[in-house]
Amino acid sequence: MSGTRATAPGICVTLAVLMLFALMTASAASAAERTLKKATFIPLWSPQAQFAGFYTALDKGIYRKHGIDLTIINGGPNYSSAEYLRSGKADFAALWLTTALQERASGVKLVNIAQIVQDSSMMLVTRKASGIRTPADLNGKKVGLWGGDFAIPARAFFGKFHLRVQEVPQSYTVNLFLRGGIDAASAMWYNEYHTILNAGIDPDELKVFFLKDEGLNLPEDGLYALEKTVKNDPDLAAEFVSASLEGWEYAFAHPDEAVDIMIKYMRDAKIPANRMHQKWMLARMRDLIIPREDRSGYGRLGESDYAATVKILLEAGIIPVIPDFRDFARRPHAGR
Hints:
Elements (H helix, E strand, L loop, with lengths): L1 H34 L1 E6 L9 H8 L2 H4 L2 E5 L8 H7 L4 E4 L1 H9 L4 E6 L6 E6 L14 E4 L6 H9 L5 E4 L5 H4 L5 E5 L3 H7 L7 E5 L11 E5 H6 L1 H20 L1 H14 L6 H15 L13 H13 L9 H4 L8
Parallel strand pairs: 1-2, 1-3, 6-7
Antiparallel strand pairs: 3-10, 4-10, 5-8, 5-9
Helix pairs in contact: 2-10, 2-11, 10-11, 11-12
């Protein structure tokens, strides 16, 4: 009994220390949680490997490491990333440069804070059996076009080559092309083109017009915010860009894991997930995002690319004015 009485105070002290430690740990965790800045981001479309870097950064805790409690809003045909950004429903959005320029020219004070995809991957796909060999051969033909801003690059192509085509609304499948309902389909290299090949059509049976090979290299997925968002919290914008680029680096270094992450998010969103197609998409995104020679432009919108895109849109009558590059492209991540 004396031994028991002798150790009781020690037990009490130990329990008190453990309880204090637990409280301090919980308090520290709670404080860390409170310091995270909440932010929302909407990509251009539903979850797929086109956005693997963002979902990987979310899943691996990279945004949280950079002090951001990020929510990714599912994009898609009923969720315009431009509208979400314009109305303040999202803090950050992915937009094509052509869309962003059109928005800026119309008075929306958005700014480019990073350029993820440096090149255009859009193409018009035709069958060689149709006799189409040159852009001029598309004159008078039925060409599938996506709606809204996604039609801008194709219409710039028509304008450059003075084409009068029959524009046919194209859904977000290539079924109309596969069934012979149109002569040419709009396609992305990382997506619809691969779907066409998977449908059993040999690449040698196709004639494709890469817009970038036809003098229309219009940079695609960029990260945008409203001017006031960057002005009010430049650190948030900078950390969002840094975390996003780190997510892409991780996804490219661990492609199988990144595809697994995307499959998970696709299934959560009840979207059909084809692993082979997602692997193709991620590989093509690497080709588009990582410069092959000079990495100094990684994640940045080049002024020469900007000027070339502005010139194309002006000549096509899509925008009436030239937004100043220094006002349009911000560098919240400079020096990081």
